[in-house]
Amino acid sequence: MELRDYQWEVIGPALEGKNIIIWLPTGTGKTRAAVYVAMRHLEMRRNAKVAMIVNKVHLVNQHYSKEFKPNLKERFKITSISGDTDEKSFFAKVVKESDIVICTAQILHNAVKSDSEEKHVELTDFTLLIIDECHHTHKDAVYNKLMEVYLEKKLNRHRNLPQILGLTASPGTGGTSTFDKAVEHILKICANLDTWRIMSPQTSIKDLEAKAKQPIKQYDLVPERVEDPFGDKLKELMAAIHEYLGDTKFITTFGTQEYEQNIVLMEKDGAEAADRRKRTCAIHLRKYNDALFLHDTVRMKDAYDFLDTFYVEEKFVKNSRDATDVFLCRLFNENSNGLLELCRNMKYENPKLKRLEEILKEHFQSASNSHGIIFTRTRHSTHYLLEWVQSNASLQGLNIKAATLTGAGLSNQSKHMTQNEQKDVIQRFRQGSLNLLISTSVAEEGLDIPECNIVVRYRLMTNEISMVQARGRARAENSCYSFLAESGGKESRRERTNESLEDLMKRAIKYVQEMPEREYQEKIKDLQRESLTERLVKEEKVESKKKFSPMDVRLDCRNCSVAVGYGNDLRLVEEAHHVNINPIFKEYYEEYTKPLNLGKKMEDWVPGGKIRCRFCKAHWGNIIIYKAATLPNIGIKYFVLHTPEGPRSCKQWKDVPFPLEQFDYTAYNEEDE
User: What pLDDT is recorded for position 151?
Assistant: First the structure.
């Protein structure tokens, strides 16, 4: 393996067995440097075993096929394990028989926590742990959960802990804007990873700069619409809903994230008070607010289609309607033609799309092998932007071949991509049959994709890490990084702030790198002790929240307030699925889709269809067939919990105020018989 001077410089301490973080820009060969460290580690240490862990499934195969296999396959046994591989079921055996294991952090964490002889491993079974995108080692992230296991062993003076090698392009500032707190954030990441030093080139800066050429950055700021009759009409309808509710205090903030947060609270209050009128209006207002966001991102037509689809589904899904349903549907229907008419007037179309068209024309006309990425906020906006590109005659004349790339997580709001679909899109982009990706943040980190000559961050308001990661995709010669937003808007102000935060991060890292070794080590030890103390306090706090008996907590459908079960009907399957095992529960739900296609093979279970309330048709979750048991797997956010202290709602299962029993397959079968 050939390494550049700056790579040799940063891996030096790792070759001596020290724990380090390699901090290098995107596209400069962090993974190649890690592969070399792994090779030397296996050559020099007896009974050595390496694990490389990643935070996204598609990176497992990428690191295996692009780096580890080509360089080390002839000499070492390398195994890649992701959620759709059979080896996961026999993780302990795979680890024992392999020199290098590449897997997601979640799979390794599950194996460390597992009681199963086939799956269980100890962190000490490995002698080197490589952590990709290691800036995620904080708070409740799975990387940090693994490192808490490591730190607990360390503070208990456990021997034979694995060497740690972290890789990152941007540790960030931890959401702070002050130097002292930025330093504290960097030190916490170092403490969580038990780091001896953060390594970046000092003597070989010029070699790095030659490799990591920065794209030309441009702010493409577009004035807001002089007139916006379509947006004004949407706001007028939202005001009418507020007047119907008798609550007009939020009407000046339509179309903002602040308004969205207020509407989420309104829906929560309505659900917990069984005030269906308030809750239903909040849901419809959220849709209008989403439409306003789309109107400001894509075409007026797209915002209209989004709302129209929602109201068509309302009409056909609901069995019965009350006065609120009638009012809301009539309000939209009576104004539908007027909205549609406004959509057709190109005088009022989104000016940002015109600028985006000009940017794409400029970069796809000038080079026949152009590659580009448009980053946008939501899955909905990726799909509508793709429609816009494909229907734009002048862009199609440039031979632009576009596709969307979004997350694989299930969502009831929009269609997810399966992991196989993600792999296919990335592969086609690499091969050149696609040359433009329209992506959510999923394409920011880690992906091995062609060097792009144009990257557009389109109406995004994110942090400095996302900015650095997205910018790192523009690596072709004379490439361009465009930030496209409304002039004077929050997004452009945030982007300027991100530039300042990136500088702050660099200063904080430099300060940490230059700390006297004794002072640094003492600080790291203090932070590690604090971290474990915080974890114990947090665990006690979580346990204290489980203060009710499951049989004393009733579950009501969040939408129609029908009582459908109790906490003692629920079981936890493999720490992942929350199922209702009471056979009477079947009377309250119906399966309304074909079995879901996750695009991957799951261990011990296969997905069934989605389920919904039999009475109001509200979505609840999906069926899973676990071994041979058909079980309704429900989301807690779709229910209201009635506790001895009153109603409450939870976004996540970890917040429920009662303990959950583990699912016992044998006992369930006996009861079934």
Answer: 96
Name every residue whose Cβ is closer than 8 Å to that of residue 458 and which is 6 or more positions away in sequence.
297, 352, 356, 374, 375, 376, 385, 484, 485
Structure tokens at 321: 């309607």
Model's pTM, two decimal places? 0.90
H or E segment at 269? Answer: helix 257-272
Instruction: Encode pLDDT of 95-116 as tens digits.
Output: 999 999 999 999 999 999 988 8
Sequence-distant contacts of 151-159: CB under 8 A, at least 24 apart = 151/192, 151/194, 151/528, 151/531, 151/532, 152/532, 153/123, 153/124, 154/194, 154/528, 155/528, 155/529, 155/532, 158/124
State the Cα–Cα distance between residues 41 and 165, nearest whole angstrom: 12
Question: Looking at the 3D structure of the chain, how many domains does it have?
Answer: 4
Q: What CATH number should be reported for the domain holding residue 383?
A: 3.40.50.300
Residue 593 within a domain: yes
**How far is CA 355 from its chain centroid?**
29
Instruction: Give the H/E segment covering residue 571.
Output: strand 570-573
- Sheet containing strand 100-104, strands side by side: 78-81, 100-104, 50-54, 128-131, 163-168, 20-23, 197-199
- For residue 542, is it within any domain? no
> Which residue, among 254, 362, 345, 252, has the nearest Cα to 304 in the 3D structure?
345
Sign of the four-CA dihedral 524, 529, 531, 534 = negative
Say if residue 316 is in the same domain as residue 362. no
End residue of a domain, out of 314, 348, 382: 348
Specify whether the CB–CB gap between 164 and 52 falls below 8 A: no
Position 599 scores a pLDDT of: 65
Mark whether 596 and 477 lie in a shared domain. Answer: no
Domain span including residue 306: 229-348
CA 197 distance to own-chain centroid: 29
284 lies in the same domain as 304:
yes
Per-residue pLDDT tens for 617-665? 999 999 999 988 999 999 999 999 999 999 999 999 999 999 999 999 8
How high is the pLDDT of residue 83? 66
* Rounded CA separation 363/359 (Å): 6
Q: Which amino acid appears at position 602 of this protein?
A: M
Q: Which two tokens stand for residue 113?
A: 């926590």
- Residues 144 and 269 grouped into a single domain: no
Which residues on adjacent β-strands are paired with residue 372?
A: 436, 454
Residue 356 and residue 487 in one domain:
yes
